[in-house]
């Protein structure tokens, strides 16, 4: 008989037999994640990226949740909610791996888990306040690539909620996204709550584009659609980071995925145009353009591969330049190239999540035991070495992609992951750049378990307020344990036998 009972709730002896039985709609799993995301939303009013002057709680009877023991309680509830979302996601993943559900339950689950977060304060980040501040600069005729939002003498709520690090820092985003932010601020003004909600609604356009492209990408790249949707759309990185954050990467990913799909379907002009537009939102999309050149070249007729490459390269550059110039001009009202210098701004963030930075800090601490030195030279040298490794790796991936087709897409996805890991800074949601493209390929269960571990880890290494937790070593130790347990749970329900022991204590009495 078909059942919605999750494998974690059955004795392991009958698991193999039960997994062969198609599942009914996983209502309980979806409900668990929905309860979790609702707890995330409620607790975020005390533990998330709250406003400096909160018009919802303010100094009213519920303001205690923002201070002292109330804030501790809010954090506890928030992490419980996070745990329920992850638990539901892993349960859903087991159904997917067993072939017991199709795509529809995953889409319903992702929608239900995102819905409460639409009205939530920002989670694990405050970047959305920077988006609004930079959009306000553009709205009032200021140059976001010259100065930070602190120069604004209007919209005090917008300005004061920007993180101190970004108050005087130029925008690191593409001009088209600043135009979008400008439109949001023009609509919501100084109302930060409406600004955050409207920004999420606008970014949902990006999610819709990705959802449209994924089924078609799966057909080309040989994956399974339920696996791709579970990995790219229902994961904590998408639900909590990209949407709950929210982050503009969600919009960029739509242009990236649709552009890559267009290249696979031999619509190369559309591919170059779309990926260039994605670059005007977040410059990282540009990584895919050289790979699209190979795809175009391999679709051209003619025996000379060199000539085909030159033709495709020239055509791509000929498309890229006018789209880039027009997009910049339309967004900013001029050909303001100051946003290139703004790309250096995120490098102000230094922590060991970025591997080269972490290596530099390790060497600094070893030397600092003997000699009193500054950390910056060590980090600078390590980052320079990391950039060299990234360039060599990226060029090699590009060369290996010279056959075009699905191989080029795979190499592009790998390169996007490498950029996220090796180029400072490494922020948790950056890993979605590569994961979304790679989700459309065929995956082994053990590799998906690794993605679970990474997803849980990178979501938790920042506090819900958006401040990093990477040097709170006891906390990080707990995060590592939670990540490994989540990964093991995907492959083997209740890997430590905790639930089974709780349900059948007599087993231990017999032992």
TrEMBL record:
Annotated NCBIfam families: MptB
Entries under InterPro entries matching the protein: MptA/B-like (IPR049829)
Tagged with keyword Nucleotide-binding: no
A Pfam family assignment: MptA_B_family
Protein origin, superkingdom: Bacteria
GO cellular component: membrane
Protein name as catalogued: Alpha-1,6-mannosyltransferase
Annotated GO MF terms: glycosyltransferase activity
UniProt keyword terms in alphabetical order: Glycosyltransferase, Membrane, Transferase, Transmembrane, Transmembrane helix
């Amino acid at each position: 008989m078909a059942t919605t009972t999750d494998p974690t709730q059955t004795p392991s002896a009958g698991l193999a037999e039960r997994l062969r039985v198609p599942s009914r709609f996983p209502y309980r799993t979806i409900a668990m994640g929905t309860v979790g995301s609702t707890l995330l939303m409620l607790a975020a009013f005390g533990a998330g990226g709250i406003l400096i002057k909160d018009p919802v709680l303010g100094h009213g009877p519920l303001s205690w949740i923002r201070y002292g023991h109330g804030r501790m309680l809010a954090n506890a509830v928030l992490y419980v909610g996070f745990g329920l979302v992850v638990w539901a996601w892993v349960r859903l993943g087991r159904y997917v791996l067993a072939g017991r559900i199709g795509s529809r339950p995953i889409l319903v689950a992702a929608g239900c888990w995102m819905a409460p977060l639409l009205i939530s304060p920002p989670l694990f980040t405050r970047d959305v306040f920077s988006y609004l501040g930079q959009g306000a600069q553009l709205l009032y005729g200021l140059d976001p690539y010259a100065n930070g939002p602190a120069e604004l003498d209007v919209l005090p709520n917008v300005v004061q909620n920007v993180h101190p690090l970004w108050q005087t820092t130029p925008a690191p985003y593409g001009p088209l996204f600043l135009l979008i932010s400008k439109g949001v601020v023009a609509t919501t003004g100084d109302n930060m709550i409406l600004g955050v909600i409207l920004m999420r609604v606008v970014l949902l356009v990006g999610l819709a584009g990705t959802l449209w492209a994924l089924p078609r990408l799966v057909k080309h790249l040989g994956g399974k659609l339920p696996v791709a949707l579970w990995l790219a759309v229902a994961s904590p990185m998408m639900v909590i980071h990209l949407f709950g954050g929210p982050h503009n990467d969600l919009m960029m990913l739509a242009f990236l995925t649709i552009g890559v799909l267009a290249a696979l379907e031999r619509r190369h002009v559309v591919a170059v145009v779309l990926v260039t537009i994605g670059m005007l939102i977040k410059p990282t999309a540009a990584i895919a353009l050289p790979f699209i050149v190979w795809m175009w070249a391999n679709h051209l007729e003619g025996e000379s591969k060199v000539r085909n490459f030159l033709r495709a390269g020239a055509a791509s550059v000929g498309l890229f330049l006018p789209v880039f110039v027009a997009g910049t001009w339309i967004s900013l009202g001029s050909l303001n190239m100051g946003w290139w210098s703004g790309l250096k701004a995120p490098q102000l963030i230094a922590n060991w999540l970025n591997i080269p930075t972490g290596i530099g800090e390790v060497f600094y601490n070893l030397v600092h035991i003997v000699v009193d030195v500054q950390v910056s030279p060590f980090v600078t040298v390590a980052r320079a070495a990391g950039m060299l490794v990234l360039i060599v790796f990226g060029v090699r991936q590009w060369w290996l992609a010279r056959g075009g087709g699905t191989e080029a897409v795979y190499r592009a996805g790998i390169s996007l992951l490498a950029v996220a890991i090796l180029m400072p800074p490494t922020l948790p949601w950056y890993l979605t750049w590569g994961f979304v493209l790679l989700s459309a390929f065929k995956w082994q269960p053990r590799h998906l378990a690794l993605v679970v571990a990474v997803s849980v880890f990178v979501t938790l290494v920042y506090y819900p307020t958006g401040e990093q937790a990477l040097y709170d070593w006891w906390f990080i130790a707990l995060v590592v344990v939670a990540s490994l347990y989540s990964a093991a749970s995907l492959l083997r329900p209740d890997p430590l036998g905790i639930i089974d022991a709780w349900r059948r204590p007599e087993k231990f009495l017999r032992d």
